[in-house]
Amino acid sequence: LPSGSALRPSFTNGGPTVAEMNELIGLSAGLNDASKVLVDFFANNPGSVTPPGQWTKFAEIASATDRNSLDADVVMFFMLGQAMLDASIVAWDAKRAYNSVRPISFIRSACAGQLIQCWGGVGNGTLTLPGEDWMPYQRATNPTPNFPEFVSGHSTFSAAAATVLAALRGNQISLIFKFPEHGIRFDPTVPAAPVTLSWTSFSAAAEAAGVSRRYGGIHFSQGDLKGRALGVEVGIAVIKRVWSLYNWRTIPNLKN
Question: From CA 32, how far away is CA 171, in angstroms rounded?
Fold first, then answer.
């Protein structure tokens, strides 16, 4: 990156629209066990592996699947680590530049004095609640990250990671994760039966990571979708730079 702002995306309308707000309220009202598990899987709250760490774990799966050599792993994890670093720079540049509002603040303000259908809290399904009581589907100890909304870090990290990993060894990968009954710690009745999350490509996993933040009430659609596009730009920039440092064709188990 020539500068932290080099890839700064535009922020349409300067904030969330009513349509974006209504989408999140509708997603909240329609939460089921599968979508709740998706939210929890990608949440990566403070103290966890974090989104970059989660994608490093995905890369470990790719390494084992491909039976990578040490040389191949050095290039893959170097490229992935650089993409995660650059993704953090461009995402937080946008966050600081636009200082955008989070859904919890926007929805509670815009819907104050109204009754809305939404997630009713831990142990509850969908309820009709005052708009000022709306809550994202997140643990009470970390209901919303303490920094601006636009863009989604999860979306940026995930798209950047998916782009570089797909360039190195192909997009197709088997990612399968099983959640046991009552496996969500902050909402212990969920899921009522075991749930399996699975993706057949890095790009599909990245899309799921982005949309999970909308199900969870953390990001609006613009923050998610423009974060994904930003992540792809980061991935391409890293690929070009690493390509100038390595002759990939001489390294086993890597594909253009």
Answer: 29
